Amino acid sequence: xxxxxxxxxxxxxxxxxxxxxxxxxxxxxxxxxxxxxxxxxxxxxxxxxxxxxxxxxxxxxxxxxxxxxxxxxxxxxxxxxxxxxxxxxxxxxxxxxxxxxxxxxxxxxxxxxxxxxxxxxxxxxxxxxxxxxxxxxxxxxxxxxxxxxxxxxxxxxxxxxxxxxxxxxxxxxxxxxxxxxxxxxxxxxxxxxxxxxxxxxxxxxxxxxxxxxxxxxxxxxxxxxxxxxxxxxxxxxxxxxxxxxxxxxxxxxxxxxxxxxxxxxx
Length: 266
Hints:
By secondary structure, the chain is of the alpha/beta class.
């Protein structure tokens, strides 16, 4: 079941909108607001949501945090400080694994931008979520904290519920060894008459080094062809245009077939 995202006393409409945007990227749509400072709805939230209007339109407003999470048996408070409250402390990954595994609704609560959750807010939670961050610079904004938790939750989706992955570019298979040998031989034929393999005593070792370099990347046939074209261009005298490409002749018409004039090939 999808968790509820609860923003406690949020201050700026822009931050509410950015949190909505973070949520919808990972298919979370239920936002609850507890006593937003500037009231609700807030005209500044829409532009910041960048199209996540469904989250803002369905957002519910509550006077107290207790009311906002009344139907949620599993409540997680996000905070960088334990504030003297003895509760389990989980990473976002561990907390969202619990959310996927346990029955009933779950809520993840986030505090005001400036000060975070108060001790009384954290006391309502069953566990604390703390993001492992640089101890010398612990400064996540509201939307960043929401997106971290939303992303970790999305990783637990499976099969038809999983979020769409970025398209994978088709990768051509490696070129056959025959093509690579042709490329290596082509390069060798250009280098040898120009004295590249000097001194002679090091020629075999230099050739092995070049072969290692050329076979290491697992070139595909288009890459091999491109490099052969580069070498052919280097063979030409400067200013000499490349020879025209000769198109292969079309196959002769089959016996009995008519050409464009209507005559048969017989």
